[in-house]
């Protein structure tokens, strides 16, 4: 697929996928559930085709709830699960209380997942090259967009999709207290009429 074709496909798909995933996260959190491992591999795309539609309809759904837990659960086995590239900066700190996944860390993970959709890989891939120490420090810095720009193709894709980058940034505030909730993020998305 050429870069132009990839960009056109992203322009068509991103708003709907972002809406599906943010709405799904809002629903989970309203039910008191922390997913704890949001990443591209845990998103299922459902593609429906119908002769009356000009193009297939693509819907996004969360899968793999093996790390998920309810906040109101008495279960004390909650762990600091997740996949490093998609974990929030506070989960990389040494204080155990901050390592436990929260609604805020789910929001961060979705922001990274959406950013990965734009850049085509983990935003840390070019900068860290598989080095786990560098990856941990990059995540703690709280600047995934800056690391993604180190890859020339990713930087070009980001420049071409600024309104989508703005959507990602809503979930990528380093300070978890300033990070939007899923419900507020959904409100922001509606107010922006993303992709309209």
Keywords:
196 residues; mainly alpha; Transferase(Phosphotransferase), domain 1; two-stranded antiparallel ribbon; 9 helices; 4 strands
Any overview of this molecule?
The protein is mainly alpha-helical and 196 residues long. It has a single domain (3-66, 81-187), classed as Transferase(Phosphotransferase), domain 1 (Orthogonal Bundle). 49% of the residues lie in helices and 8% in strands. The chain is built from 9 helices and 4 strands. A two-stranded antiparallel ribbon has the order 1-4. A two-stranded antiparallel ribbon has the order 2-3. β2 (43-48) and β3 form a beta hairpin. α1 (3-30) packs across α9 (182-192). The radius of gyration is 17 Å and the shape is globular. The model has no long low-confidence stretch (mean pLDDT 88).
Give a brief description:
This protein is mainly alpha-helical and 196 residues long.
Set out the fold topology.
Blueprint: H1 3-30, E1 33-34, E2 43-48, E3 57-62, E4 69-70, H2 96-99, H3 103-119, H4 125-128, H5 132-141, H6 144-148, H7 152-160, H8 162-169, H9 182-192
Antiparallel strand pairs: 1-4, 2-3
Helix pairs in contact: 1-3, 1-9, 3-8
What is the level-2 CATH architecture name?
Answer: Orthogonal Bundle
Count the DSSP helices: 9
Radius of gyration: 17 Å
**Strand order, largest beta sheet:** 1-4
Domain tally? 1
Strand content is 5-15%
Order of helical and strand elements: HEEEEHHHHHHHH
CATH classification, class level: Mainly Alpha
CATH superfamily, by name, is Transferase(Phosphotransferase) domain 1
Class from helix and strand fractions: mainly alpha
* Helix proportion: 40-55%
Q: Uncertain spans, ≥5 residues at pLDDT below 50?
A: none
- Give the number of DSSP strands: 4
